[in-house]
Design a protein that fits this description.
globular; single chain
């Protein structure tokens, strides 16, 4: 059973196949920098596409039971901490990047869902998703993958609770509360329609994110083959107390989704960068990107955006230090 997991689910078969490809077709040894980079690029590309196709299909089928209208109704039934937990959990089965989840977040505000709950959703949605979990599982094992998901949800729950306690409803643009939101009838789909919905989602999402994915994998391949391990380990290793802070500050101005940053994080970790440092960079890039802030500015005022960045940033930094301190238990 363990051999089956290692060979199939952990993609050992693919690793061997790509090794044969690089050494027999490209005639480059995988022990060289060039060969190592080529191997990383092809291996991660194929692995991630396979996982994407499977996981997007499965979760999209489940998502067909939770259209935005139903999600709004579910959230409206809860308040307090339970509501924040539900919002974060629903955020884990929503689109892969902040620019996809922000419009849903806006719809929640328009529908009167409490502000703290909407932010729990917004924080968790881009950080945690099923494909990111699957890739982390294949790359680092179940301990790190599950811990990442749990901490991502916790950041969303705590962040939403804090924002809810601050009573900043006046920082939402007034026109949002004046909008009339009609209850739409929830469409009932057949099994065939749900399968078609899931297949269309696979096609749509891969077409939308493939460029970010390939860029992330290419950067990861360069880091994997050419970045000096001793330098990265010295300045960005878990022993450097400032590494996590720098990773978050560097990650915020960038724009990507979790899928595009995971290959970079994977390569950085292999070179000696602290697990928490690499994952905090990934979280900051996906949850606090500049395009997301520009979208949010359409419905909320700068003061609330600033609080959102501060609260979420602090949460991500703490998660980074946590992962660095328990890394030996996760891999």
């Amino acid at each position: 059973m363990i051999k089956f997991i290692n060979d199939i689910l952990m993609f050992n078969w693919l690793n061997k196949l790509i090794t044969l490809l690089v050494e027999n077709v490209f005639h480059v040894s995988t022990s060289t920098r060039l060969g190592s980079s080529i191997h990383f690029f092809f291996y991660d590309t194929i692995k991630i596409i396979i996982l994407l196709g499977i996981m997007i299909f499965l979760i999209s089928y489940v998502r067909s039971y939770f259209p935005p209208e139903r999600t709004k109704k579910i959230l409206s039934r809860f308040d307090g901490v339970v509501g924040n937990i539900m919002a974060s959990l629903l955020g884990t089965v929503t689109p892969f990047c902040s620019c996809s989840s922000v419009p849903i977040f806006i719809g929640f505000i328009e529908a009167g869902v409490p502000l703290g709950l909407t932010f729990s959703f917004l924080i968790t949605s881009p950080i945690v998703n099923e494909a990111a979990f699957a890739i982390l599982l294949a790359s680092f094992g179940w301990k790190l993958a599950f811990t990442y998901v749990i901490t991502g949800i916790v950041v969303g729950v705590v962040g939403g609770i804090v924002i809810g306690k601050l009573k900043m409803e006046d920082q939402v643009e007034g026109y949002v509360y004046e909008m009339q939101v009609n209850d739409l009838e929830i469409e009932k789909l057949t099994h065939k329609e749900r399968v078609n919905f899931a297949l269309e989602n696979v096609k749509d999402i891969i077409l939308r994110i493939w460029i970010f994915l390939l860029i992330g994998i290419a950067l990861g391949a360069l880091i994997h083959g050419w970045a000096p391990a001793e330098v990265l380990s010295k300045y960005a290793g878990p022993s450097n107390p400032f590494a996590v802070l720098v990773a978050v500050v560097v990650g915020i101005p960038l724009y990507s989704n979790a899928l595009g940053t995971i290959p970079i994080a994977e390569a950085l970790i292999a070179k000696g960068v602290g697990i928490g440092t690499a994952l905090s960079f990934m979280m900051a890039t996906t949850a606090l990107s500049l395009p997301e802030m520009l979208l949010l500015r359409k419905v909320i005022k700068p003061k609330l955006i600033k609080m959102f960045v501060i609260i979420t940033g602090i949460g991500i930094i703490l998660v980074g230090y946590l992962f660095n301190s328990i890394a030996h238990l996760l891999v």
